[in-house]
Structures are given as C-alpha cells and as structure tokens.
C-alpha cells in the first residue's frame, strides 16, 4: 500500500491520512476496506494488520473507530485477530471507551458479539483454558 501524505486543515485541526485510516485530533478512523484493499475481511493476517493499527492508536491515547463500510464477507478468523486479541491486552472498560465499531451489517454484529464474548472468557481464564486443551489433546494419545 502507498502512504498518503500528511496535510492539515484550517484552525490547526490536523487530519492525517495513511493506509486506509484517518486521524483527527485523538480519534483514528480505520476503514477496513481501504486497509486490506478488498471487500472480504477473511484472513488472520489482515486481522492482525487491523489489530496493530488499533493497538498503536490506543497506546498513544487515541480513540478508534473501525468502519466496515463496503465489507461484504467477514470471518471469525479475521475478527479474532483484529478485535478478539484486543481483550488480551486491554480491559473491557477501556475498549468500551476507546473503540467504536461502525458500518457493520446486522448479521456481522451477531458474529462480532460472539467473538468478543469468547475472547473475554478466554482471556479471563487463559490458564484454565490452556490446561483443558492440553488435557483433551493428551487424552487422544
């Protein structure tokens, strides 16, 4: 992807455009379609790319809006990488304040809610989940 140059608008209100995202003051808007370059958000790699963009913004104190405009196909693999792993680093309270999901189809909202529910449970009980997985894997051997 090409880097789009930085420019500022009147009244010292800067807007930065880069790789599918715009940042106004302390709010970053990432348009997933522009970030990944297609209308299908399916790969873990693309999800990780979105995660890294969101993580950097939150770590710098910015709020983030993720726009799913023009995304017509989405997988749980993408959402787990992009959104789910945020719950391993940040609290739900912080994400409720800093993260906004926009332009998401109703059917995808159901999938996203499930991804978030599972991520919260996983990261809350990460050690216990790991032990259960080990037990199940060793049971077959």
Average predicted confidence as pLDDT: 81
| Percent helix range | 40-55%
pLDDT < 50 stretches:
1-19
Order of helices and strands: EEEEHEHEEHHHEHH
Task: Name the shape in a single word.
Answer: globular
Major sheet characteristics: 6 strands, mixed
> Got a strand count?
8
Report the span from N to C terminus: 46 Å
Oligomer: single chain
Q: What count of helical segments does DSSP give?
A: 7
Order of strands, main sheet, comes to: 1-2-3-4-6-8
Describe this structure in words.
With 141 residues, the chain is α/β, with parallel strands linked by helices. It has helices at 32-36, 44-59, 76-84, 86-89, 92-98, 106-124, 126-139; strands spanning 7-8, 14-18, 21-24, 27-31, 40-41, 63-67, 73-74, 99-102. The strands form 2 sheets. Strands 1-2-3-4-6-8 form a 6-stranded mixed sheet. The protein has a two-stranded parallel sheet with strand order 5-7. A hairpin with a 2-residue loop joins strand 2 (14-18) and strand 3 (21-24). It is globular and about 50 Å long. The termini are far apart.
Give a concise summary:
This protein is an alpha/beta fold and 141 residues long. It has helices at residues 32-36, 44-59, 76-84, 86-89, 92-98, 106-124, 126-139, and strands at residues 7-8, 14-18, 21-24, 27-31, 40-41, 63-67, 73-74, 99-102.
Describe the secondary structure blueprint for this structure.
Layout: E1 7-8, E2 14-18, E3 21-24, E4 27-31, H1 32-36, E5 40-41, H2 44-59, E6 63-67, E7 73-74, H3 76-84, H4 86-89, H5 92-98, E8 99-102, H6 106-124, H7 126-139
Parallel strand pairs: 4-6, 5-7, 6-8
Antiparallel strand pairs: 1-2, 2-3, 3-4
Helix pairs in contact: 2-3, 3-6
